[in-house]
Amino acid sequence: MKIAFIGGGVMGEAILSAVLSKGLSTAQTTFVSDVSEARRQYIEQKYCVGLTNDNWLAAERGDVVILAVKPQNLAQAMTDLNGRLKPGQLVLSIIAGARIETLCRGLNHNYVVRAMPNTPAQIGEGMTVWTATPAVTAEQKGWAAAILGALGNEIHVDDEKYIDMATAVSGSGPAYVFLFIESLVDAGVLIGLPRGMAQELALHTLLGSAHFLQKSGKTPAELRNMVTSPGGTTAEALFKFEKGGFTGLVIEAVLACYEKAKKLGG
Ligand SMILES: NC(=O)c1ccc[n+]([C@@H]2O[C@H](COP(=O)([O-])OP(=O)(O)OC[C@H]3O[C@@H](n4cnc5c(N)ncnc54)[C@H](OP(=O)(O)O)[C@@H]3O)[C@@H](O)[C@H]2O)c1
Description:
By secondary structure, the protein is α/β, with parallel strands linked by helices. It contains 12 helices and 8 strands. Strand 2, helix 2 and strand 3 form a beta-alpha-beta unit. The protein is elongated, with a radius of gyration of 21 Å. The structure holds NADP nicotinamide-adenine-dinucleotide phosphate (NAP). Residues 6-12, 33-36, 39, 55, 68-71, 73, 76-77, 94-96, 116-119, 171 line the site of NADP nicotinamide-adenine-dinucleotide phosphate.
């Protein structure tokens, strides 16, 4: 498949690296456009793909054109491509908050996929939720699923409303998880653990618990109850979490993120 990238920054590179390593495209069939000369040099040296600073020059060569610029640079990128894309070229946008309607209008093009990946995509452990316009063919949906699947897990949804919801759970989710790990490490240090050891304990507890949940077939509540002995140490800690409003706070935070995502898109 011929793939063009508009923006070769952090996320653009994550997708580029994944599609090349999975053999979905080759260095000869991959083109990256980026305004930053330093970035172009870096990408060229590392991946040997075609580089340009002309968005249209890259886009016209792609079966799939991946939009991976920051939201504030989207208008310029769309102007560069407006009305020039051929019917059948698939545009795949990962730009947070950019609605399908905005993309179709700004590009004057109907073959559009909107996706919300997250940062673990950089190591192939991402979670991406995506949707497509009605014009997108089954074959093109297959391309999108393959590209996004190369970043980790992918879920297709028919309704765009789920993209804002996914932003609040999986898109921003890694930041919540990192905050929890940080807090657990700080707590470990407070009670006397060396920082490095606290970090290792916290990280492997999180990884182990996530894999355990995934493989056990049980719900989080069932697994939590299994480690909560009557009158025991875990029950003491969980009581403090509940007293401090932990569950309510997580829900409020996710709700705030969701509202912000809807506002940015609107
Ligand atoms: N990071 C995440 O976790 C995440 C998750 C989901 C979605 N996203 C979305 O992914 C997109 C890219 O994020 P990122 O973190 O990869 O950003 P980034 O590292 O800043 O990459 C964007 C690249 O595009 C270049 N650029 C700017 N204007 C351009 C233009 N008009 N034409 C071509 N290239 C242009 C930038 O150059 P300069 O630096 O010189 O401006 C930069 O090299 C964002 O829209 C974001 O919402 C990110």
